[in-house]
Amino acid sequence: MSKYILKRLLIALLTVFVVATLTFFLMNAVPGGPYEAEKSISPTAKKALEAKFGLDQPILTQYVTYMKNILHGDFGPSLKQRGREVIDIILKKFPVSASVGGIAVLISLLVGIPLGCIAALRRGTAWDNLIIVLATIGIAVPSFVTCALLQHYFAVELGWFKATGLDTASSYVLPVFALAFYPTAYITRLMRSSMLDVMGQDYMRSARAKGVTPFSNLFKHALRNAILPIVTYVGPMMAYTLTGSFVIEKVFNIPGLGREFVSSITNRDYMMIMGTTIFLATLMVVINLLVDIVYKIIDPRITLK
After folding, report:
1. Whole-angstrom Cα distance, residue 195 to residue 182?
2. Where would you tag: which of 21, 43, 128, 241 has the fewest CB atoms within 10 A of its CB?
């Protein structure tokens, strides 16, 4: 196990390095610059700002300097939010996104897994058909449509919740529901398919022949094997939701990392774009490593090489 973890850590470092390199050169290959949109700035002031942040240096020199700074945990200063470091912005915004995303992940698992099991256990019944219809809607409807419908009916028409912001406990309801809707539907469909496959195995038929109750047969014998595909999906889903959905944070005006990333793109804040991308890549790699370890815990038959 230790040898496998060490190997994966080395691969993770290589992955983050490749992502950082590609992001850096792609950002610098984009036409224009971070100060092109500032019409009021003079050419002299523009050159002074570029010299201050090292943007006037050769591209390879900028790359070497940036990679050295990353090794020390320094993503550089924001080019638009003057006087603020990128790492400080990420550390301030990430907890906001993680609070919404963490609740959404928990709801997706607590709702999606039981619904998938019920649909598999009641295959062909009205319960199965109803769950499949709801799951299909959740997968098919885009997140911005879900956000608009939630805001219109529950915030504007009924006035039960706030349409924007994240300052009270009730203000979490709509963005969390919007963020959890798709993964819950996907987990439900995935769990149903996996459970049906497991329930058709020989050992499951033997358990039924011995008189094991359907409930015990489902949750005691089948769930442990059927949940493995869910564990695979939860890895990238957690990385996506914990950093915040760009669309949902923009629509609900949530001051999280997702909205900050979108703003950095429109403002051409290269340092913020690169820092956020590297942070997301690192989070994705770490979560995938943890998922592989959980795989081994759930199913001891899996060998880690």
Report:
1. 20
2. 43
Instruction: Read off the DSSP letter of residue 156.
Output: I
pLDDT score of 304 more than 60? no
Closest CA to 54 of 70, 36, 88, 77: 77
Would you list the DSSP string of 240-295?
Answer: HHHT--HHHHHHTT--SHHHHHHHHHHTT-HHHHHHHHHHHHHHHHHHHHHHHHHH
Buried b (16+ CB within 10 A) or exposed e, 274-293: bbbbbbbbbbbbbbbbebbe
Q: What is the pTM of this model?
A: 0.76
Residue 121 tokens read as: 């256990």
Query: d(Cα 95, Cα 243) in Å, to the nearest integer?
Result: 9
Please give the C-alpha separations between residue 198 and each of 187, 193, 210, in angstroms, as whole numbers. Answer: 16, 9, 17
For 30, 46, 50, 56, 83, the CA distances from 39, given in Å and listed in that order, are 19, 10, 16, 20, 21
DSSP reduced 3-state for 77: strand
100-111 confidence digits (pLDDT tens): 888 888 999 899
Report how far residue 165's alpha carbon sits from residue 47's, in angstroms, rounded to the nearest whole number. Answer: 38
Work out the mean pLDDT of the chain and round it to a whole number.
Answer: 79
Tell me how far apart the 2 most distant CA atoms of the chain are, in Å: 85
Q: pLDDT at position 300, please?
A: 59
Cα-based distances in Å from 223 to 143, 218, 230: 30, 6, 11
Q: What is the per-residue pLDDT for 55?
A: 66
d(CA 61, CA 46): 20
Helices and strands: H and E segment counts in the chain: 14, 0
d(CA 85, CA 72): 14
